[in-house]
Amino acid sequence: MRIKLDENLGESIAQMFRVAGHEVETVASENLWGIPDRDLISVCQREERCLVTLDMDFANPLVFRPSDYFGIAVLRLPAQATLEDIKALVQTLIDGLSQAPIKGNLWIVQKKRIRVYQPEPESP
Questions:
Q1: Which mean pLDDT values do the consecutive 10-residue runs of the chain (124 residues) have?
Q2: Residues 71, 102: contact at Cβ < 8 Å?
Q3: d(CA 54, CA 74)
Q4: Is the pTM of this model over 0.90?
Q5: Longest C-alpha distance within the chain, in Å?
Q6: What distance in Å separates the CA atoms of residue 62 and residue 87, rounded to the nearest whole number?
Q7: Distance between CA 104 and CA 101 in Å, rounded?
Q8: Could you give the CA distance from residue 28 to residue 40 in angstroms, rounded to a whole number?
Q9: pLDDT at position 123
Q10: pLDDT for the residue 120
């Protein structure tokens, strides 16, 4: 899986994905700090990468329709989160990626579970 880590996820997280066999680029390594969300998701689309982020704005399927992208994974942290909390969510995501494709989907990753956004069926 080709992954782009948002600016709020560092090199230790990138390394976890690499060890699991994923190809990872980061906002930091590409000097994309502070770009608007729409521009970031466009970069991910051009590069055919899944976006992994802590930014809850990407969890809004009305703004970022999951079917338009190569996958959006939003890590949902508890209050007062630690690096270990982030690593636990990343491991949950890595495990999920080994079991199901994320392309075209929005995954909300929580402690030991992944909620997959299911769009409402269109009315005839």
A1: 94 97 94 93 96 96 95 95 95 97 96 87 60
A2: yes
A3: 6
A4: yes
A5: 48
A6: 28
A7: 9
A8: 12
A9: 56
A10: 65
Whether 124 is in a domain gets the answer no
Residue 85 near residue 92, CB atoms below 8 Å = no
Q: Give a yes or no: residue 71 inside a domain.
A: yes
Helices (H), 1-122: 11-19, 37-46, 83-97
Identity of the residue numbered 51: L
**Domains in the chain, number:** 1
Cα three-residue angle 30-32-33, rounded to 5 degrees: 125
On the CB side of 114, CA atoms within 13 Å amount to: 23
- Residue 123 counted as domain residue: no
Residue 121 lies in a domain: no
The range of the structural domain enclosing residue 92 comes to 2-116
